[in-house]
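SUBJECT: A protein chain and its fold
Encoding: whole-number codes for local backbone shapes
RECORD BEGINS BELOW THIS LINE
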Amino acid sequence: MREAAFVKRNADKWADIENNPTTDPDELTARYVALTDDLSYARTFYPNANVTRYLNGMAAQMHRGLMQNKREERGRFVSFWTRELPTLFYHSHRLLAVSAIFFGVACLIGWVSAINDPTFVRLIMGDEYVNMTLENIKKGNPLDVYGKSDQVSMFFGITLNNIGVAFRAFVAGVIASVGTLSLLFYNGIMLGAFQAFFYERGLLLDSILKIWIHGTLEISAIVIAGCAGLTMGNSILFPGTFTRMESFRRGAKQGLKIVIGLVPIFIMAGFLESFVTRLTLPPVISLLIIGLSAAFIIWYFILYPIRLNKSQ
């Protein structure tokens, strides 16, 4: 291959490497391997050419970056939560908004359907759950379901189930985002119908003060998991300048990081549901827990990523 053709074929790739630096260790390694392959080719066929000196300089600079990254691996855990994950969310805010809006619309549909069709709640929640709740309402404790199970067993069961839901919402994104949207729709319908059920019986405020102690974190995490699934799904639908397989690989990696970042949220939500929701708390305490949970979600997943990336 002539030198000019070699340069023309790879110029865009080199410019992207040079103009869009990354601190992601996997991406940095992939770029370094690609660059050294090009350098090896240039040294073989154009040993004294400018392109060889150019590639040699870029490869040396990237090698220093790799060595520096190795020294920083011990702080990778902290860096993941304080920089890498928030930066990823910053670039995912559009899909997070799509996930939240879609889930909200589904909640509204579930609410309206339950209000206009008395059988709808039974269709969604099941006869057994509805009958049990009606019986609890007669006894004066409509949300007694949260106080019947062993706390530790309930904690592990709920936490593992919620993490499973998040991973399913992510993995379902492989079906061109349709699977993720379907799961968001179902969960939104269920939440809307559930709240309408209590509203019709004059217990909406009671249910909010009880359920949203853990539900603020739990529902927020499900919506964010939807964002992870859409990230992977959109990487298939809209590969941009990458090959579809390379775009999918990147999207899957980003989505998986988002889901992993949700695990502590689900653990805390499981703890609240198992140990706190069952308690009869003063309304001000319930509102405080709900408010702090909402504030954390808004700060860590929206405000902090914006501030972090504006400062860079």
Notes: The chain has two domains: 3-71, 82-310. The mean pLDDT is 88.
